[in-house]
Each structure stands twice: as structure tokens, then as C-alpha cells.
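Predict the holo structure. Ligand: zinc ion.
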Amino acid sequence: MPHHSVAVTGASLTPFNRRRDGTSWRDWVFDAYSTALAMSDLEPVDIEEIFLASESDFFSLQLNPASILATELGLGGVAVTRCEAGGASGQVAVHAGVRAIRAGGARHVLVLGVDPSASSLSGDAMRALYGFSFDAWTDGMAGVTSTALYALSYQAFAAHHGTTEADLASVTRQNRANAMRNPGAHLPRGDTAEQINESPMIASPYRRLHCSPLSDGAAALILSRRDAVPSTRRSAPGIAGIGASTDHMHLGARSDPGAFAAKTRAMERACAEADVMPKQIELAEIYDAYAGAQLQGVMALGLSDAPGRDHQDGDFAPDGRCPVNLSGGLMGQGAPVGATGVGQTATCALVLEGRYHAGLQPQTLPNYALADTHGGVCTTAAVTILQREAAV
Amino acid sequence: MIRRTLLLEYGLEPGWMAPFVEGLLKGDAMARRCGDCGIKSFPPHRTCACGGSGAVWVCLPGTATIQFRTTGSDGDFALVQFDGADTSSVVSLQGIAEGQTNGRISAPDDAVPKLVLGPIEENNR
Ligand SMILES: [Zn+2]
């Protein structure tokens, strides 16, 4: 079987926020696609396949959205696939696109992610729907919220690793501070640790400011076979490795309910493909649905064996050894579910090319970047390692 | 703005999980004991971690010990270990005071089959 290498020729995110401007999710997709296509120096006729991440028809009231978007984008006739894996939907769509090119099925594919998670339904309706993201017949029927399940998992993690309220505040402050330099971010905030620790308790130890928001938005990637990359786009970064895995759907059936074991396995698979070690990662967009989930993620990915200490020491700050969530992450930039994983990978690609927001772009370009996404309480994990293309 | 309201009424057949669901409605903790390794899972697993799928239903005593508890505006929930089970369970807590470490499975008051843990005393049978 042919195994072609894959480059990211186009990458774009719309702002993530709660839209109040009369635009629709179809508009956001159109904007993200148009910007990514312009960056790729390709033409619409070059796109052979679309992979769309969108978590739920409940949010958009549109079943079969991929074919609708093919028409809207003027790409009628291309093959389409809708990808869904809860919060990991976007990264799973990236993987599907990568596999299509590697296998020789297409030279250029469009990966889209979108969800109107903020503006189409009430917050209560969204929380009720999210409650069915876990095992609907056990956790869902018991009325356990996403925040409560994550809180229980984090408590197990904190009991094992000794992380504290100060560590949660440290993650929260860093992600929201990064968001202040991201013009497309939903929650740019400069809360003090005291303000964070006094925000309303949602599910102990998680307070409102420890949680990511529900956002509207879209993201797009154009993936291209390396030997088909336009001559003007030779600096396009490559996909070095992908990996995915699952964990038991019930927290209580896991040998350690505080460990994101699926993420560890996904990372091992991606590192094996990329032939890198976690310590070689110099930039990471990590799935911080909650502040503690970032600590759990950093640990599971092998980026630290003492995540609380390393956060407080600045290892993951914008000028640290491995900046984490430069974008602000889900907590700062926002979380339009289907767009999240596509947006994380787009962010990594833009940074590796030196094309990210001026206030956040590192002066020294990283060699390897990691996009880490999961669904459920890390029930599905999908990670992608990107590599900077040597100067041409 | 396009406004549209949907009212959805689901009727979901529980299939192989029927004994578990019926148990919840009565306040019984029905677990599955794997025919191969003997592990008792609750909530029940169709396929055991050992790979075995042959299993029998067993009724646990219904008492449980709280391992981790979360409280706030979303409600009161816990990860608990039911006596006789080899896995832990996420439950909704009803009437369990702060600091109390034990409870007993309790039938839901709204006919929704859900895992509820209430005080041991009130549900003594
Ligand atoms: Zn077994």
C-alpha cells in the first residue's frame, strides 16, 4: 500500500465566541474554508474529499451536514465523511484526512470542524445534552454532568499526585492570559488566583472559572500529499505521526480513574509513527476542558512527571520549554466542539510556519508540535504530532 | 432568527441490560459476575475486561462506600464502591450529609432508571 507523507498547506480558525452578529455555522465554515484555501495556494477544483467534524445534530438541527456544506462551499461532487467522537471529533477528522492521503486515495483533502455550541440552544439544554456524552444509560440517566465526572476523575488524580487549588489557578491564569493575546479568543481574562478560588462552585473542586466555555466557531485545514504541495507552499509543516485510543466508558471500571490512559496510548502510537520522544515536543495544544484536565493531560502525554510543579515553574508558559495552549486552549480560546481538534491542529501548523498571532508567535520556531484532543472523560483520545518543514 | 422547538420522547429498550435497569427502578443493585474470571462489575459489563462474555446476574447487598465526592450547583455525585462489586460506580447522592462515607442504593423517585445512593438508615430493609 502506498504511504504518502502529508503536509498542512492551509489552516484557519474563525474567532471562537458566542456569536451575536446574525451569522450562522454555515457562514463560519465558509470563512474558515476560504481562508485556509487562500493560504494553500490551491483551487477549489483541487479538493477531492471533505472530512467534517461536528459533534451533534442537536446543536445545528442539521442531519447529514457534510453534504450540505459541500454544496454551500461549491464543492459538489467531492466525497464527504462526517466524523464524530465527542470532544475528539475534530482530531478524528484530521486523522481520517491524513489516512486518505497516506493511502493514496486523494492528493488534497479539506478537514472542517464546526459546532454552534453557544448560540443555538440554551446553556441548560446544552448541559443536558452533554450529559449523554458519557454512558447515557448509566452516567447519563443519573444526571451526572460533564463537570461532575471530570471533577471525580481529577480528585483521583490529585489524591495520587498531590496537585492543589493553587495548581488549578495557575493553569487557569496562564490559559486566560494567553487568550488575551489571541484576538479570536472567547474568554481573555486576567483573573487573580483569589477571584478564581472565589468563583461559584460547580462541582468541587471545579469552580466556574476552572471550566471551558461553550463556544461558536469553525476551523479548517487543507491537507496535501507532500509531492503535490504547490511550489509556493514548500514551507508547509508535515504530519509526523497520529495516534488514537479508547478507555473504559465507566470511570469506576478504570484501574486508575484519575489517569487518562487512552491519551497515553494515543501518544505512544503517535510518537512511534513520528519517531520522537515526548520530551522533543516544543509546543502543545492540550484538551483543557477543565483546569485539572490539563494537568492530567500533561502527565498522560509524558510531557511532565510533576505537572503542578512544572506549570508553576513556567515550563509550559509562552517562553517555557514547551508552551502549552498558547491559543488559550479550550478554557481561554473557547470550545466549539467539532472545531476544537481541527483548530488545535491548525494552531500548531500556523505556529510551525511562523504565521500565528503576532502577540503569541514564538520567535524560535518549534520543531515538533502536538495537538491533543479527547472525548468523554478521555474515553476517546486522538493526538497528532506536526513537524516543521526544513527551511527551503 | 429561525426559531423551532422540538419535543422528543424516547422509548429506549435496555436489551441485555434489562435486569440492571429493572433493578435500579426497584432499588436493587444487579451486578454481572463473569463466568471466566469471577469479577463482579457494577454497573454491569457485557464483555469482561478478561474478554469473557459469559456471565450471570447477581444481586449485591446494595451498600456502598464513597471514594470521591463532588458537590456544587450541578448537584451531588460520587464515585463509590458497592459492597461485593469489583468495580466502582458513579452515583447521584440523595440526602447523604457531608462527611458521611456510606450509603445504600435507593429507588429513584421519578421512574427514571438511575443509580441513586441514599442514607443507609432510611432504606434499611
Ligand atoms: Zn472476566
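Chain A has 14 helices and eleven strands. The domain at 6-121+214-387 of chain A is CATH 3.40.47.10 (Peroxisomal Thiolase; Chain A, domain 1).
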